[in-house]
Amino acid sequence: FAASWAEWVYRGLVILVIACPCALVISTPVSIVSALTAAARGGVLIKGGVYLEAAGRLKALALDKTGTLTQGRPEVQRIVPLNGHTEQELLERAAALEANSEHPLARAIVRKAREAGIQPAATEGFQAVRGKGAEAKLDGRTFWIGSHRFMHEKGQETDEVHSRALELEDAGHTVVAIGNDTHVCGLVSIADSLRGGVPQVVEAIRHAGVKTVVMLTGDNEGTARAIAAEAGIEEFRCELLPEDKVEAIGRLVREHKHVAMVGDGINDAPAMAAATFGIAMGAMGTDAALETADIALMSDDLSRLPWLIRHSRRTLGIIKQNISFALGLKVLFIILTLFGMASLWMAIAADTGATLLVVFNSLRLLGRSSSDGQT
Fold first, then answer.
1. Spatial separation of the C-alpha atoms in residues 97 and 317, rounded to whole Å
2. Using CA of residue 71, residue 74, residue 77, residue 78, what is the dihedral sign?
3. By three-state DSSP, how is residue 223 classified?
4. Which of 351, 373, 332 is nearest to 20 (CA)?
5. For residue 126, which of 154, 98, 150, 104 has the smallest C-alpha distance?
6. How does DSSP assign 68-121, residue by residue?
7. How many angstroms separate the CA atoms of 164 and 123, rounded?
């Protein structure tokens, strides 16, 4: 267009400077690092930025019952001897069979036995039946211990035993049956109390934008219904084996795409792996759960869940702000340069200033309160 070479070379240099992607490139990593640091300060350890971002897109949340929604310290409520056995015999056999287990229900039985002055006897041929119970030889005779379902599978559940088990389950207790190769020796009912503030946490999770909250448990329907009602959770699935939990998570993923699983036990690990991301209870969680999880709540404080969701969404919002600002400034300066209204020094100042502003905007995430989510 017969324009001056010197003028347009200068304008080209201005565009070259303003096109430097410093602010754009740094906008996401600074935000992620700041958010991860703030989360760690609040007792939430996140294994990477991808999981932090995933929490902001969460649509469905599955919660394990025992050790997650509940205190994880169940206590024996009743001991019901059957078929001529005594409470002493039941406790001795139950403690012997559960002595090597890390399950909260097993620990409750062993603790009750020790309070009664009973030391667990040695067993032979111990074999755990995943998600159901265990079997072993005691004094040369085979005994088993496990859930109501396990008792039913053994084919030794009489009408009397069934009615007694239902009576305990309707009271919101978890029933553990003890038997041998001929009959059911008795029942032990165990109950765990809900963690403080769980109904408020569930409500806060919904207010944070999570559409579906589901409780998953291996317990019977009566216990599951009672705990879910107390926690304010409308949807629950009960009597689940580890593979059933995986199937339930798979269904939620197909329906909602972005799903998290919160758990603490080894039985929860497969389901956590099947979810979009897994969240482990850090203090009470088993090594398998912590290794599988992508996020850990180090204080076992469920109020961190709604905080995490809000924190993640705020992080995504700041990343979008940074990107929009960086791109918008470049477009503006390119237009100004084409009309001869921008100088090289203006471009240098704008590029450096944009980088600093993006960094400062990202650092606002470090000022997040760990309790109420306010700056």
1. 53
2. positive
3. helix
4. 351
5. 98
6. IIB-S--EEEEEEE-TT--HHHHHHHHHHHHTT--SHHHHHHHHHHHHTT-PPP
7. 28
Find the length of the chain. Answer: 375
Positions marked active-site: 64
Give the residue-averaged pLDDT of 14-28.
86
Query: How would DSSP label each residue in 121-183?
Result: PP-EEEEEETTTEEEEEETTEEEEEE-HHHHHHTT---HHHHHHHHHHHHTTPEEEEEEESSS
Paired tokens of 143: 């005994």
- pTM score of the predicted model: 0.76
Element containing residue 50 per DSSP (H, E):
helix 49-56
Q: Are 316 and 27 in contact (CB under 8 A)?
A: no
Count of beta carbons in the 10 Å neighbourhood of residue 345: 10
**Cα 112 from chain centre:** 30
Mean pLDDT (the chain) is 87
Whether 88 contacts 97, CB under 8 Å: no
Tens of pLDDT, residue by residue over 119-138, are 888 888 888 887 788 898 88
Burial of 328 (0-12, 13-18, 19+ CB in 10 A): exposed
CB 66, CB 219: distance < 8 Å: yes
Q: Which amino acid is at 175?
A: V
Q: How far is CA 314 from CA 62, 148, 241, 260, 285, in A?
A: 23, 46, 37, 19, 28
Per-residue model confidence as pLDDT tens digits over 283-304? 665 677 788 889 999 888 899 9
3 burial class (0-12, 13-18, 19+ CB within 10 angstroms)?
A: exposed
Q: Give the pLDDT confidence of 164-175 residue by residue, as tens digits.
A: 888 888 777 888
Other beta carbons within 10 angstroms of residue 227's beta carbon come to 26
Contact 91, 289 (CB under 8 A): no
Alpha-carbon dihedral of residues 301, 302, 305, 311, nearest 10 degrees? -40
Dihedral of the alpha carbons of 49, 52, 54, 60, in degrees to the nearest 10: 160
Model pLDDT for residues 143-153, shown as the tens digit of each residue: 999 988 888 88
